[in-house]
Amino acid sequence: MAIYPTRDLLSISSHVVHGKVGNDAIQFPLNIRHWNVDCIHTTNLSNHPGYKKFKGTKSSFQLIQDLYKGLTKIELRYDAAIVGYVASKQVLEVIYTEILAKLPKETIVVMDPIMGDNGKLYVEEALVPLYKHILRDQTCEGLINLVTPNQFEMEILTDVKIVDLDSLKQAIVSFFELYRVQKVVITSVSFDDSDTVLCIGAGSDGEVFTIQGSRIDAVFSGSGDLFLGILTDRFVKSHGDLKESLTHTMNVVHKVLENTCQLSANLQPKRYVGDKLYIPDLRLVESKFFLRDDSSDGILDNLTTSTTFL
């Protein structure tokens, strides 16, 4: 039986009892990829709010602080850390000052600055300037290795409205002028209603690459969290090769979403977001074959890539 090296990761994100979002969409896939994943939950909900009915609470900043202090008492060290959904400004402040700032410099940190989508904020507005402060803080340069905003969040961070390739390039230039982060991935970029989806990777060295894949005509909860987990795994294992990491991640996530869509075809009652079918639960267990390290081998033909320099 093959023995694989394991790594240790701290994931700070939301938690639901039922469903696969937040930490629940990150932990299982990374376990399959030989990570020991410790989770700090920023929420404790019965299910995703997309169901329209749920119970539970947001975690307090005192709880987040105490949990991490407990981890430091037993002298744990992490190869990587993920910061996903954060529910309040006070919690983000604790994550920044009491966790990220105290991690060893060799820990790879990937942050998804979750603020909103489709032109709307769904977190408290006080989080926006705090995210900007964290990313530009010169005293913590190199603290965060990779940031993964979506198109709307990139617009918030740079104050550049992204409507075409020129404004996209302008936003990327502004990002690296403003923030002390070496690499960024902009997810779910779209300029029209085409059946393709773009992900943009960029580095502070001026390299920009675009990866284009086919769009699945449905709305999923947890797909962004799954994307974040797989990207972090590959980013660490490839020693920071962002293009390879992003290509692999898009393939894996696409396969999981396809499988989830097929397995949910007869789901009742059907739910919709606008005119698109809404699928609230990813089928991660049923998709575990696609979650393996080698799962994207030989299935790269659904993506096209291009590289430029600013």
From TrEMBL:
<keyword id="KW-0418">Kinase</keyword>
<keyword id="KW-0808">Transferase</keyword>
<dbReference type="Pfam" id="PF08543">
    <property type="entry name" value="Phos_pyr_kin"/>
</dbReference>
<comment type="similarity">
    <text>Belongs to the pyridoxine kinase family.</text>
</comment>
<dbReference type="InterPro" id="IPR013749">
    <property type="entry name" value="PM/HMP-P_kinase-1"/>
</dbReference>
<keyword id="KW-0067">ATP-binding</keyword>
<keyword id="KW-0547">Nucleotide-binding</keyword>
<dbReference type="InterPro" id="IPR029056">
    <property type="entry name" value="Ribokinase-like"/>
</dbReference>
<dbReference type="GO" id="GO:0005524">
    <property type="term" value="F:ATP binding"/>
</dbReference>
<dbReference type="GO" id="GO:0008478">
    <property type="term" value="F:pyridoxal kinase activity"/>
</dbReference>
<feature type="domain" description="Pyridoxamine kinase/Phosphomethylpyrimidine kinase">
    <location>
        <begin position="76"/>
        <end position="267"/>
    </location>
</feature>
<protein>
    <recommendedName>
        <fullName>pyridoxal kinase</fullName>
        <ecNumber>2.7.1.35</ecNumber>
    </recommendedName>
</protein>
<dbReference type="GO" id="GO:0005829">
    <property type="term" value="C:cytosol"/>
</dbReference>
<dbReference type="GO" id="GO:0009443">
    <property type="term" value="P:pyridoxal 5'-phosphate salvage"/>
</dbReference>
<dbReference type="InterPro" id="IPR004625">
    <property type="entry name" value="PyrdxlKinase"/>
</dbReference>
